[in-house]
Amino acid sequence: MSLPKKCLVDTNVPKTANLATQPDPESDVSDACVLACIEAVEHVIKKRGLIIDAGGEIFDEYRQQLSMKGQPGIGDRFMKWVHDNRWSLHNTQRVTITRNGDSYDEFPTHDGLNDFDRSDRKFVAVANAHKDKPPILQATDSKWWGWKDALDEVGITVQFLCPQYVETKYAEKMGT
User: Fold this and answer.
1) What is the pTM of this model?
2) Cα 44 off chain centre by
């Protein structure tokens, strides 16, 4: 899988990468999916290609779900890297978004996105506000599978690191 030079990283990507060192007996995520997330996290760090919001909402979400110590997992190492490097990223990698109630002014208007998860809107708003509309890396959140076409129609690309897993989970949830 070819990874983009610059991208947004949904929180479930580093969380899934952490399963390599912190297995969850309840998880049905494949080793291939975990490996894809590890590779994505390492790629983003190596290329310094992370796009985040200037106000720190994405950072705060990472901080709530990953360890700032940078260990024991690779996703935690990503968290420490974001903490240590977010202010040294190029200005174009920190995008200003404007909160508007439980959404953002930069969140695209599309009937297919009306029920989009409120907590994930910041990722879409940042991608939409950025001049290059960078892709969003997504690992295991199957709800995004249902929104991928509407997002594509407004110019937002979601790169699924574990497409078979997400598609299967989405079909199970939708009863198809």
Assistant:
1) 0.96
2) 12
